[in-house]
Every structure is written in C-alpha cells, then in structure tokens.
Design goal:
The protein has 222 residues and is of the alpha/beta class. Helix 5 packs parallel to helix 6. The structure holds D-xylitol-5-phosphate and zinc ion.
C-alpha cells in the first residue's frame, strides 16, 4: 500500500466564474490530481459537465485529471473523455452491464481504469474484474452532491476493500469520495484509502484553497 497521500480536489465545488485561476491555485497549493464529477441527472439527481471541460482544465494545469462518471451509460462518453486527455476514468459498477468490456475499453484508450462503489454495493462485485483495475473508488455517502455528511461505516468498507485487494495481489489505489473533511480524512486513511477527493472542505475553507489543502494534509500522521 502506497505510503503517500494523494489529494484530488473536486472542481464541482469550484467558483466557475474564475475556474482557470482556481485550477492554477490548486496546483500551486500542492494538489495531486484534479477530480472531475460528471453527472447526467439520471444515475444521480444532479447535472454537471461533459467532455468539453477537459481542454479547459488542461489549459491551466499539468496535473493528472481523474474523471468520475456518475452517468447511466458511461460507454457512450468514454471515447470523448479519452480523446480529451483524461488520465483516470472511473465508472460506477451499478451502471455497467458489461463492466469487463468497459474497463478494457478505458485501458485500451491508454487511461487508468477505476470502478466506483455506491454505499450499498458490496466489495465482492469487483472480484471478476480486479485485474483490470488501477483504482477502486469508495463513495463516502450517496453520490450526486458536494457538502454532504460522511457515512462513518464507510471506513470499515474501505478496510474490506484493502483486505480484498491484498488477497488478490492488486496494487490498485483506494480512493474515497464524499464527505472527506479534516474530521473524517484520517479514519479513511487508517482504513487504507490513499487517494482523497474533497470539494467543499477545500473550496469552502475560510482561509482559501491553499489553507484548505494544507489543513487536510495535516490530518494524517505518517
Ligand atoms: C458527488 C461527487 C463528489 C463531491 C465531493 O458525489 O462525486 O466528488 O463533489 O464533495 P464533498 O467533498 O464536498 O463531499
Ligand atoms: Zn466524485
């Protein structure tokens, strides 16, 4: 398990009137990846942005872009996100009738492949595709909105994912998304998460983006 903490701010909580500046500020403040929440108003009760957002992001940063597809039919959108320069593409297990083929198509496009689990979806659902995964995303709450509370029982689920990956000799990264704040980050870290999505705790920090990122990083005692 990688010792280092990967911080992936979610631009869903950014100020879109100055998105470019905000993205540059994230990189200067030491973010590791940029998390992009794609929502279709169908799989989740919210709408966000499509592949057109990638060139906008790539104009302002060299950081890897991590695309979280919360859409009912990800296969339709994956080629455009690959073409747009995504580095990681994560699909929800609950939306893929052909998860094996979908993950293969992401990797064939030169991207890292991730699978996301809603709170009710068991870890076991990954068993047959574990060798196709570079990342497992554990939702910390019900997907669709930023600023929601963390479900404390998700720490134990992260622990089960870590155990499962160990048993399968998988080096996939465990990412946690939803409700990650200074109060909850360390529990997820101790359980085995190594990549942390955070929106409201970074963009909503009273001291600004830089303080938001530094404050989160301070929560883990290496
Ligand atoms: C919504 C998204 C999350 C969200 C995180 O489910 O997938 O990435 O933006 O926002 P916070 O950190 O505020 O919970
Ligand atoms: Zn997300």
């Amino acid at each position: 398990m990688s010792p280092s903490l990967i911080l992936t701010p979610s631009i869903l909580s950014a100020n879109f009137s100055c998105l470019g500046e905000q993205i540059e500020a994230l990189e200067q403040a030491g973010a590791d990846w940029i998390h992009v929440d794609v929502m279709d108003g169908h799989f989740v009760p919210n709408l966000s942005f499509g592949p057109f957002i990638l060139p906008v992001i790539k104009k302002h940063t060299c950081l890897p872009v991590d695309v979280h597809l919360m859409v009912s039919n990800p296969d339709v959108l994956i080629p455009a996100f690959i073409a747009g320069g995504a580095n990681y593409i994560t699909v929800h297990v609950e939306t893929c009738s052909h998860l094996y083929r979908t993950l293969q198509s992401i990797r064939a496009g030169g991207c890292k492949a991730g699978a996301a689990l809603n709170p009710a979806t068991p870890v076991e659902s990954l068993r047959e595709v574990i060798h196709l995964l570079d990342l497992v995303l554990v939702l910390g709450n019900n997907p669709g909105f930023s600023g929601q509370g963390w479900f404390p029982e998700m720490a134990a689920k992260i622990g089960r994912v870590a155990q499962f990956l160990d048993q399968c000799n998988s080096s996939a990264i465990i990412q946690v998304d939803g409700g990650i704040t200074a109060e909850t980050l360390n529990d997820a870290w101790l359980a085995g998460a190594r990549a942390f999505v955070s929106g409201s705790a970074i963009f909503g920090h009273p001291g600004g983006i830089t303080n938001g990122i530094q404050f989160l990083r301070k929560q883990v005692v290496f």
